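Re: the 347-residue chain
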Amino acid sequence: MYSDLLLKECDCAIITSPASLYYVSGVDVADAVLILTKRGNYYLTNSLYEVAVKAASPSGFELLIQTREEQSAFIKNQVENAAVIGLEYDHITLAWFNSFFTKQDKTVDITGTLAELRKIKSCEEREIIKQAESIVDAAFQATLPLIKPGISEKALRDALVANLVANGAERTAFDTIVAFGENAAMPHAVPSERALREGDCVLMDFGAKYKGYCSDFTRTVHCGNPSQKFCEAYQTVLTAQHNAIEYLEKGGRSAFEADKIARETIDRSPFRGTFTHTLGHGVGIEIHEAPWLSRRSKDVLCDNEVFTIEPGVYLEGEFGVRIESLVMIENGKLTVIDRSDKEIYIV
């Protein structure tokens, strides 16, 4: 139970974010509040989710099925009888805060504590994430034969999503990205009706949600023979990823240093300054969570953490290349989870 850790700085912790609700209780519903106290723990929800929560049987919680008014009254009572309340500052709204509190000095932020707890994955969590990543590998292989001139970004996106579900995903982990040619120069491109043409690159970034956990995967393939410039960019990105992974495989654990190694690899090439985002991020219940691999990160990567390594090169008006692997550290050893080839795939 997480009560002891969450109640170190407060005598009542109120958990409201969907990811933390699932992490602490193991129940995934859209409308719930967890209250942890030194006297007992409570799971608050409404009658719409009563059957689902009872079926999930959250251990260590007293289940309270309440109307909105009853729930508000119960929370106010807990607040009034506690000296210090722990809240997820990153999740609650000002309106929610003002409905229960008159001053901030009665509250402390437990967002960071929850992030630290979730950062270290149990053996069960790691196995689920491995299964989620095997789903994206299978979906990628099933989708490759569909990449032909004339197909639109939206149509390819829809096929990719269907293949994720066909291979066991409960749903997508995030909005699937499919981008052709010049659209691939936008790291978070939104699929459009743009049709694939001979000579285009195809960037696909997608993930599966499986048993409450995410996977993340990106590959860039090419329709027809690629230009020398594209090949150089692709090889630069692949080398940047290889160098960062090699650093971690040899025992390096600085998230900042991993990002620096990949970034410097790209900046020594003709594509200096075109790697515009961070090297990676943790993956778990949420698609983006701690640890963070960036130029500002102070994270020291540890055993049982799961995170991405995803360098990229983006040339506005021309093309983009991103190659992403999901990795984890187990018993001091780095493991790359995805299994799909990373060499240039030409369709």
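The longest strand covers residues 32-37.
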